[in-house]
Amino acid sequence: MKDTTQNSASSPVIEARNLQLVFSTNDGPVQALKDVNLTINKGDFVSFIGPSGCGKTTFLRAIAALEHPTGGTLTVNGMTPDEARRKRAYGYVFQAAGLYPWRTIAGNIRLPLEIMGFSKADQDARIARVLELVELSGFGKKFPWQLSGGMQQRASIARALAFDADILLMDEPFGALDEIVRDRLNEEVLKLWARTGKTIGFVTHSIPEAVYLSTKIVVMSPRPGRITDVIDSPLPKERPLDIRDSKEFIEISHRVREGLRAGHSDE
Amino acid sequence: MSRILPIVTVLLVIVCLWYVAAVKLNAAWVYDQAARAETPAPGFSELVGLTMNQERPVLPTPHQVGVELVKSTLGMQVSSKKSLVYHGWVTISATLLGFLIGTTAGILLAVGIIHNKAMDLSVMPWAIASQTIPILAIAPMIIVVLNSMGIQGLIPKAIISAFLSFFPVLVGMVKGLRSPDQMQLDLLATYSASKAQTFWKLRLPSSMPYLFTSLKVGIAASLVGAIVGELPTGAVAGLGARLLSGSYYGQTVQIWAALFAAALVAAALVAIVGLIEKRTLKRMGMAR
Ligand SMILES: Nc1ncnc2c1ncn2[C@@H]1O[C@H](COP(=O)(O)OP(=O)(O)OP(=O)(O)O)[C@@H](O)[C@H]1O
Ligand SMILES: [Mg+2]
Fold first, then answer.
1. Same domain, A159 and A171
2. Among residues of chain A, what percentage have pLDDT more than 70?
3. Could you give phi then psi for residue B117, rounded to 5 degrees?
4. By residue range, what is the domain housing residue A224?
5. Is there a single domain that holds both residue A188 and residue A261?
6. B288 reaches A (C-beta below 8 A)
7. I want to staple A83 with a disulfide (CB 3.0 to 4.6 A). Which of A36, A79, B128, B217 is the partner?
8. The model's pTM
9. Which atom of ligand 1 lies closest to the CA of A203?
10. Residue B92 pLDDT > 50
11. What is d(CA A204, CA A213) in angstroms, rounded to the nearest whole number?
12. In terms of DSSP H, where are the helices of chain A?
């Protein structure tokens, strides 16, 4: 409880006001986001959940300046997303790890550091630190194909952490993994979040995953993509896996499910 | 061993068919001789003997070609004008220079096509059109034009061979440089990577398997180009010259020996590129 109140008192990192995003396609315009209003504060762990096509990915990509809104305002650290990107405000983790097969794990983590012009010694220090953070120390010299899918995804998180962005955006990072691996990675992500104090945006299809991880759950619905509910989680920051059997957890899960159902019956 | 057996079997079948064809095709000359000498036509076993070692057979037998190959490579001074090593080297040097020019041109054009919308729209149609022109028609023109500018010898042949080899490299490299998917490009965009960084760190390494595949096609095409380039020069030196002088004087054995030499050179060049491919991809961690 204490954590959430403290978080909401701190400064907004991402702010969307009446955000619109329309794709013009060959079959006419597609409204991917409509009137999206959301404030994400420093240190928040925000999950986006909703049926396929409701604009979760589009919203995350807009924050990362990979898509450009057609209306409303969107600021990241008080800047436009483009400016924020140039200031290295965020790291982005895609659904697939997307490691370069011709680079070792350490080489893959080195990629953003090379592009951003860090010194060689600094690069090495950072690689060692993030490898330790995702519990892959000792795997730096391995090539991606020598690692399991879960380890590859952890390496890709390390890559996004290496240049010390304050915001970590993750689009279904564990979507392709089995549930047991997923549980463990979720625990690790929580630990990582606690240790680094980053602001995290996390897209998922799984209600338990969203409730387990987040301080704030954003429920979205499709056609047009919009936010139907924003739930501030009362769960403590410290979350063992068995918190998922607690009364609060089940209550929040229920509210998320209701929100998803309401979005559907709107049509 | 299990790989060698099928190859040897196929080879044996081909050699047998070749002997049969040689007897059939060379028989006409034997009958002709018999008719002229007004002796009775020879029986089958005699006929076979008479078709095996003719001086100007329609189709030389495998052992004739083999003997000629050995004689004209190992059996004489390398500097001799009859040595296939000498002629082979003349052709190989033009092939390698042409391959270098063609590969460079192909890669540069591909880089241009990737980065420039106007080039993307304009270069490809011309490149394709260039390959529809029969090389035999354009080769003499290139030789004549360059000759009038005082350029002779190696360069004109190399240019013809470059003309044939740039195309597979161009097509392969355009495909290779475009092979990174949207997600990988988006990832670099989140780092605000420049176009140059995207090229060196993502596009170029991704294109390597494509590049080597087209290099193998390209070097074989280079060899064809160099040989074709030797035909209109009046048959001075090179495997092409051997083919041409062989056909002037009806030396079919010489023609076939030169043909086989060309095939062996092609196989060797492709194998060398393949070896470099294996080494490179292994060092890049892309071959398991
Ligand atoms: N580049 C694009 N061009 C045109 N339409 C697009 C594009 N990207 C997304 N859309 C459309 O925008 C809508 C939202 O897509 P988005 O990918 O954001 O959904 P999502 O919530 O991430 O879905 P999922 O859960 O399946 O990943 C969809 O209707 C989709 O068809
Ligand atoms: Mg999505």
1. no
2. 94
3. -60, -45
4. 2-89+166-265
5. yes
6. yes
7. A79
8. 0.83
9. 22
10. yes
11. 11
12. 2-9, 56-63, 81-86, 105-116, 120-133, 149-161, 179-196, 207-213, 247-265
